[in-house]
Design a protein that fits this description.
32% strand, Pseudouridine synthase, alpha+beta, globular, Archaeosine Trna-guanine Transglycosylase, Chain: A, domain 4, four-stranded mixed sheet
């Protein structure tokens, strides 16, 4: 049998999708991939179906740097519904407990929030995509099975109230990768003594990307209807995902050896970590890593660079 032919065209770049609530991240990805008729595409960290907001879609060669966005900090605007707990810790779950909501003072709320700023540990929710003995936790949860989960360290860089009502709080969260906002809200509700769940969630930033320049699925459909290839103009360059790492400019000789997979010595290069690699001033080659002996090793090289 011959190899299966991959359908689609080569598209390279990053689309900042404004994911709508009500669909999964994968469903949003598949719609984008279809609209671009892209051969290869992937998203950079799932948003719950309830959530909307920034979902970078990496296409073609950009999928090689998707891990950098997966590891990046995220920002969220969250509505916390006080007094009601659900089995999923969000509005899509079944109500499992209700409690009265007191008239909390601003000082009381601030005291509670302060307990969650900085490095903390979270127990991942059962309704998550983590695996236990090969099975997704959310599948076990739907079967009524609960398993023990190990606490995981995360970092809450910023946590503040942006608005409030009698039985709800709007909070802004700037956090490290791996943070479960649903768990954070549920834990805040417990510390307040009333319980809580997420009733609204919007991601406002992923790494270097904020919510400026987001494109909706409806806008993509309309643009494609006018001009099939005009959607390509919406794509950001791969380098825009990597601005937090230093750039290293290589001579033509060093770039040649790097393309062959060899580590090279670069004068005045950083002494550790990841770096963006350029031949000369502007030809982006990919990502490299500084070895213990100070040489730069190729790691995520772009095809054709």
């Amino acid at each position: 049998m011959g190899r299966r032919r991959v359908r689609g065209r080569d598209v390279n770049g990053i689309l900042l999708l404004d994911k709508p609530s009500g669909i999964t991240s994968n469903e949003a990805l598949q719609q984008v991939k279809r609209l671009f008729f892209a051969k290869k595409a992937g998203h950079t960290g799932s948003l719950d179906p309830l959530a909307s907001g920034v979902l970078p879609i990496c296409m073609g060669e950009a999928t090689k740097v998707s891990a950098f966005l997966l590891d990046a900090d995220k920002c969220y605007q969250v509505r916390c519904q006080l007094g009601v707990k659900t089995d999923t810790a969000d509005a899509e779950g079944e109500v499992i407990e209700t409690r009265p909501v007191e008239d909390y003072s601003d000082a009381r709320i601030e005291t509670v929030l302060e307990q969650f700023r900085g490095p903390i540990e979270q127990i991942p929710p059962m309704y998550s995509a983590l695996k236990h003995e090969g099975q997704r936790l959310y599948k076990l949860a739907r079967q009524g099975v609960e398993v023990e989960r190990e606490p995981r360290p995360v970092d809450i860089h910023e946590l503040s109230v942006t608005a409030r009502g009698e039985d709800w709080l709007d909070i802004f969260v700037h956090c490290s990768k791996g943070t479960y906002v649903r768990t954070l809200v549920e834990d805040i509700g417990e510390r307040l003594g009333c319980g809580a769940h997420v009733s609204r969630l919007r991601r406002t930033a992923v790494g270097p990307y904020g919510d400026d320049g987001l494109v909706t699925l409806e806008e993509l459909e309309a643009i494609k209807a006018r001009d099939k290839r005009a959607t390509d103009d919406l794509l950001l360059t791969i380098e825009t995902a990597l601005t937090q790492w230093p750039g290293v400019n290589l001579s033509p000789d060093a770039a040649f050896y790097l393309r062959q997979g060899q580590a090279v010595l670069v004068p005045r290069a950083p002494t550790s970590g990841w770096v963006r690699l350029y031949e000369g001033e502007d030809t982006f080659l990919g990502m490299g890593e500084i070895l213990d002996d100070g040489r730069v090793a190729p790691r995520r090289m772009m095809k054709g660079a």
